[in-house]
Amino acid sequence: MAVVGHTEEDVKLLARLMRAEAEGEGQLGMLMVGNTGVNRVRSDCLDFTKLNSIRDMVFQSPGGFEATQKGYFYQRARDKEIELARKVIQGNRYHPASNSLWFFKPSGSCPTQWFNQWNSGRYKSHCFYSPTQSACPKVF
After folding, report:
1. Three-state SS for 4?
2. What is the CB-side half-sphere exposure of residue 81 using CA atoms within 13 A?
3. What's the N-to-C CA distance of the chain in angstroms?
4. What residues are paired with 114 via a beta bridge?
5. Segment 91-107, tens digit of pLDDT
6. Helix, strand and coil in the chain, % to nearest 5
7. Average model confidence (pLDDT) for the chain?
8. Quick check: helix, strand or coil at residue 22?
9. CA gyration radius for the chain?
10. Which of 12, 18, 93, 132 is at a distance of 20 to 30 A from 76, taking alpha carbons?
């Protein structure tokens, strides 16, 4: 059962975002980006209180994803990314992004905190950050 409402267009948007943000990180990296996006829609907390759909999350500005804000969100969703997007929409979670709301690619090691949020782990070149359960209970 889906953890967020969605249309077929939403699935393709999420798949495009996953590809744009993490294609070089492989399937697991793209799944983690998808987790982060779905968590933002579910969260209703911190920077993500006005996100009511996958579309809102993908195009959130300010505070959204670099791919949509810096111009590399142009490739179509391929069948494989669409399949991966469906997995995270169905509620599959992948550590360290299980409860994350943020990720970024540092030039060195992952800072312990990023904008006052705790590091939940690293996968390849991306560091993931999760809120506390008391701040964002819907993510947990």
Report:
1. coil
2. 25
3. 17
4. 117
5. 999 999 999 999 999 99
6. 45, 10, 45
7. 96
8. helix
9. 14
10. 93
